[in-house]
Design the sequence.
């Protein structure tokens, strides 16, 4: 979905994303936390998610629960600065929206006003329908997130595939219908049995964005650092490594260390040269 008039890039809106349901081509989505990464991804992505995975990926936290609203806003601003075409969505972090729709509204307003992003994402199904409804009725576009909910998980052992039993599948379907009815313009489905994600995709009228879900989803998302091979080997099965950037960094840093230690770096090309001035020593 490339939106360009003449040479001016026009940002993809949440309405454009919603309309994708009727198109054959899936949405291309990735996470971005920094301006430079956003700049690189922008030409290729329809949607950039400033995900609270940044807590683990950038800040080395055990889970996403330590991420604050200020962190999300700062990184949201950076991603907006770095991108011009993609629709930017910012995650609502743990503890900033669950208490009441009013709490969610105050947090979402800060995110929207301070970053200028296209909308927010929050984790939760039917139980969060009233919250989604409140945000949408105040003109705040919302992406819902169902299936595996990382904010409910304290450590890696909690990251489990969702929707294995009939009851769980039924609940996922109810969650999807509830958030759609509440006004979410898209639904992220994370780490579920593929057939239930496919069924949800066929059932709801808004686009589904899969991560470990189904190729039938209306779009796909991955954590950028996972797919680039920066986060290490222990990534979920749904991650495909499109590059092994950690290995390249490792090789580059080893060479740099060797060249510094042997004084091979810096060489003449890296120096600002001119004949040395005759400097007088200051009398002490
Ligand atoms: O926080 C995040 O990066 C996410 C994606 C995994 C969908 O929610």
Sequence:
């Amino acid at each position: 979905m490339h939106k360009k008039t003449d040479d001016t890039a026009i940002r993809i809106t949440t309405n454009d994303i919603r309309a994708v349901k009727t198109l054959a081509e899936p949405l291309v989505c990735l996470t971005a936390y920094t301006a430079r990464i956003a700049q690189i991804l922008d030409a290729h992505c329809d949607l950039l998610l400033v995900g609270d995975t940044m807590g683990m990926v950038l800040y080395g936290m055990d889970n996403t629960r330590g991420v604050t609203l200020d962190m999300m806003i700062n990184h949201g601003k950076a991603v907006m600065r770095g991108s011009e075409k993609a629709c930017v969505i910012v995650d609502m972090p743990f503890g900033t929206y669950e208490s009441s729709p009013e709490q969610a509204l105050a947090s979402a307003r800060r995110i929207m006003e301070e970053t200028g992003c296209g909308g927010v994402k929050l984790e939760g199904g039917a139980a969060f329908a009233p919250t989604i409804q409140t945000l949408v009725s105040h003109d705040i576009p919302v992406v819902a997130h169902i299936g595996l909910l990382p904010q409910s998980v304290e450590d890696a052992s909690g990251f489990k595939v969702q929707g294995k039993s009939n009851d769980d599948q039924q609940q996922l379907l109810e969650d999807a219908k509830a958030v759609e009815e509440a006004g979410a313009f898209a639904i992220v489905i994370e780490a579920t049995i593929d057939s239930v994600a496919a069924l949800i995709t066929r059932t709801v009228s808004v686009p589904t964005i899969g991560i470990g879900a189904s190729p039938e989803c209306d779009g796909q998302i991955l954590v950028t650092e996972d797919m680039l091979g920066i986060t290490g080997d222990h990534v979920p099965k749904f991650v495909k490594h499109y590059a092994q950037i950690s290995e390249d960094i490792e090789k580059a840093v080893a060479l740099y260390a060797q060249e510094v230690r042997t004084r091979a770096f810096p060489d003449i090309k890296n120096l600002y040269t001119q004949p040395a001035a005759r400097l007088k020593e200051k009398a002490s």
Summary: The two ends are 70 Å apart (CA to CA). The domain at 14-243 is CATH 3.20.20.60 (TIM Barrel). The first helix runs from residue 14 to 19. The chain is about 35% helix and 15% strand.
